[in-house]
Amino acid sequence: MPDRTNLISEMNDRSREVFRRVVEGYLENGDPVGSRSLTRTMNEKVSAATIRNVMSDLEHLGLLDSPHISAGRIPTQLGLRMFVDGLLEVGKVDQLDRAKIEETFNTDQGDVSSTLDRVGSVLSGITHGASLVLTPKHEAPVKHIEFVSLDPSRALVVLVFADGHVENRVFAPPIGQTASSMREAANFLNALAQGKTLSELRRSVEIEIKTRRQELNTLAAEMIENGDAFWQGEGDQNERLIVRGRSNLLGTGAEKDELQRIRSLFDDLEQKRDIADFLELAEDGDGVRIFIGSENKLFSLSGSSLVVSPYMNAERKIIGAVGVIGPTRLNYGRIVPIVDYTAQLVGKILSRKS
């Protein structure tokens, strides 16, 4: 089989047009496209038999598939990828869609988190898919850390940042923790924290715990290690994945096994699995990226596609991402500019707020 990057360039005009029309027809209505329907839309007058021969060649290349005997063709995952990379025509954001997106930002109500909640809702609404918004980490240097016992099974960590931001997070302390062990743990962390962000502090803690474990009270060491809750515990607002519009992917037209795969996908997302991978997908390059089916392990089982774009702060550093999940039969030409435009607006608004 030829190198997939050269498949489209090696096609003649007729093969390229048949391929494009099959994919566009499938993306529009989800049905296989037959040779007879193509004879009515082709730029040149050709017979149905000629088109069937072209379709057969494209199927042999792995770009098309025939779901049923004597049925029309649909694009394979490789075919969709080739279409997106080589033939997709991306339009501008529709004026109505643009107005709905901009309306999300035309209010100063709420903080950054509530703004991003609204972004997720409007994205799922206008795309009729599910939206993902990865909120930015709070990366200001830590000024002070304090542990407060709530009861034998719960403790509170208070984080004060140099920019005045304060966060309170609950975690499970080690059994038998004492007031002195909590003070020792806090003193240990405060000595390391000055001038460091949370991510930088975490790396320092991992190193220091290994080299200075004998100097620390055992309970204090466990307190610090259990205190990883202030980076990745439940309810963590420091990095949050907002998922909106799951009902859009659970419509009545889906098959039972497809519904189960989509539910499993959302279970993974809601349990925050692979969030780091999700952000890394966006960090691999500027602009919109498209992942079709098994190209992304997070969506391989559900047979879904992801259109995702990073957003940046004023220093042009990637701090989060927005995206849309839908079936592989997405209207990519419409969704791509919507995601791109939304990501650019999010970056501008967060830069202004900061």
Automatic annotation (TrEMBL):
Entry protein name: Heat-inducible transcription repressor HrcA
Similarity comment: family membership: Belongs to the HrcA family.
Keyword annotations: Repressor, Stress response, Transcription, Transcription regulation
Gene: hrcA
Function text: Negative regulator of class I heat shock genes (grpE-dnaK-dnaJ and groELS operons). Prevents heat-shock induction of these operons.
GO biological process, one term: negative regulation of DNA-templated transcription
Organism from which the protein derives: Pacificibacter marinus
GO molecular function: DNA binding
Source taxon at top rank: Bacteria
Cited InterPro entries: GAF-like_dom_sf (IPR029016), HrcA (IPR002571), HrcA_C (IPR021153), WH-like_DNA-bd_sf (IPR036388), WH_DNA-bd_sf (IPR036390), WHTH_transcript_rep_HrcA_IDD (IPR023120)
Heat-inducible transcription repressor HrcA C-terminal domain residues: 115-336
